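Inverse folding, one chain.
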């Protein structure tokens, strides 16, 4: 069996994990009160499942490296370790995931880890966050809840810039875990970092003339 075939199966498994996290989107539904629009978020309940799914995604995102290296070898690329490490050196997302994946798998990290040792990243409690991204200012209407147990909540409203009104609809929703460094500075969130990592893995292959099907790259592209 070719490495490319094995990689395709690996991506299918990764997509299942990604879809498991995306299922939380089903808890979000439109709401309306006195003519104002908004959302009702059903009870999330204990959020340890979100943490577990983020941990699984981070394992896939980091260990994809091994598949990429073997595919490059199969296509005759020399010094694949050096080639791949060159991309990792430019990807803070992959470095962070390397640290967290090793920490989770081995119950800790080496005293001198190869990647992100200066950051000592850690994963915080899960969150649900909605944001009106089409709002044209840097500070956008955002609602966020986090913790070990997130109950049902609802909000409605709108905001305006001059005569232009922006009702609280078309929010983008995320269910994930915040990642911070040793000083508490935010580095991103788990699902976001995983997507950025896979973008780099696919770029490595594409830069060496190896194309991956769109349905393998985006787990929701065929939905």
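Residues assigned per position:
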């Amino acid at each position: 069996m070719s490495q490319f075939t094995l990689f395709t199966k690996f991506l299918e498994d990764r997509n299942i994990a990604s879809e498991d996290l995306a299922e939380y989107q089903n808890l979000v539904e439109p709401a309306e009160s006195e003519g104002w629009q908004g959302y009702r978020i059903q009870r999330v309940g204990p959020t340890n499942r979100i943490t577990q799914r983020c941990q699984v995604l981070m394992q896939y995102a980091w260990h994809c490296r091994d598949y990429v290296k073997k595919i490059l070898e199969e296509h005759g690329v020399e010094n694949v370790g050096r080639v791949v490490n060159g991309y990792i050196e430019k990807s803070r997302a992959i470095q962070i995931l390397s640290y967290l994946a090793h920490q989770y798998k081995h119950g800790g990290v080496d005293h001198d880890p190869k990647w992100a040792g200066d950051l000592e990243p850690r994963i915080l409690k899960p969150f649900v966050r909605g944001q009106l991204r089409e709002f044209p200012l840097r500070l956008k209407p955002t609602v966020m809840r986090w913790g070990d147990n997130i109950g049902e909540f609802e909000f409605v409203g709108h905001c305006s810039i001059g005569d232009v009104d922006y009702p609280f609809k078309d929010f983008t929703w995320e269910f994930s875990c915040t990642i911070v460094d040793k000083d508490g500075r935010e580095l991103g969130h788990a699902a976001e970092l995983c997507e950025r990592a896979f973008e780099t893995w696919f770029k490595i292959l594409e830069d060496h003339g190896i194309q991956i099907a769109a349905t393998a790259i985006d787990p929701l592209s065929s939905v």
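Confidence is low (pLDDT under 50) at residues 219-223. Residues 3-217 form one domain.
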